[in-house]
Amino acid sequence: MSVLKGKKIVVGISAGIAAYKTAHLVRYFIKAGAEIRVIMTPASKDFVTPLTLSTLSNYPVASSFYNKNDDSAVWNSHVEYGLWADFMIIAPATANTMAKMANGICDNLLLATYLSSKCPVYFAPTMDLDMYLHPSTLKNIETLKSFGNTCIPATSGFLASGLIGEGRMAEPESIVAFIEKDLSQYLPLKGEKVMITAGPTYESIDPVRFIGNHSSGKMGFELAREAANLGAEVVLISGPSNESVSHPLIQRVDVVSAQEMYDAAHADYNVCDIVICAAAVADYTPKHVATLKIKKSSSEFSLDLMKTKDILASLGAEKKGQFLVGFALETDNEINNALGKLKKKNLDLIVLNSLRDKGAGFKKSTNKVTLIDKSEKISEFSLKSKAAVAVDIFNEIISKINA
Ligand code: CTP
Asked: Is 203 close to ligand 1, i.e. is its CB under 6 Å away?
């Protein structure tokens, strides 16, 4: 998922021929899940139509403080645009608009919005070669950078004038990639390594049979997605599950048995900052695995089972600064049982599910959790999608590691 998902973006367009490319930029932002407000300078409407931009952005384009031809004369508040936006991008940013931005001139809605905005501002210069190289333009770009604005540099190439050189606005795909990379450095888990166990384990009885459980892995996969969306590098150790995930920051390690999950978890533990054990690990495994299929020769059959290693407890025992989170699935005496596990396994946080709550537990796409921390603070959450529960769990973890 793109860091742009859910972002509120003001796209400012000034009057350069590259304005036609901004239509594509808006399209990419919308596809990434962002919300867009387009503000055009009056002269930019000669290069690309407001209808194109309002259609692509799903919102009326603003280009003046109010519409003189409309009796209702609704005021376009530059202050509100500036407060609404998570960031603003001015693309294309012409020599004229940059000169005004650098000098506090605000003779149109875009400039007034720029001057009153408190959000990060990106600008993508475009102009002909000689204008771009003029000392005043270079000085204005430096001035804007000194204000904390971020320049997305123009590239070299064939210019609309026929000249070849620097001054082409960066391509829309490159602008999106630039902003995504820039924003991801501010994600709260950037630089952190997170390990998550998920799904069931299968304990072999013979070559065709196993002891398993109904865990789907959904909760663990949602936690992995959320951690990656927050910028963490994620190792997702999953037992057999039909869930799938595709995110450049998630490395999936598939395991089958409790022993394999134990080995995988210990292999990465020392380099992890946050570990969440969401897997439903088998508590017992057959003492001997038959090499050949067991035949139904007798009327009764029993299996000798032995305890599996408790992965979470072993990680708790070896903890060296990791933030360790466990799950507790309970049917009765929920809070006490969860607190007991939190202490016994040396956890920082435990996520309690009660099977008495409708909509919670295995195979559901919803969950209802109670979080209990080391100081025994209890936070109850309502029934939500597992994706939303993952957000709540990481909000709690981030508030704790930053405290
Ligand atoms: N867990 C684990 N390894 C095991 C068993 C459990 O890592 N062999 C982890 C689970 O991933 C979960 C937590 O321990 O985070 C709690 O699991 P649960 O089965 O509820 O608790 P148990 O300690 O096994 O106790 P009981 O089954 O008796 O309730």
From this structure: no
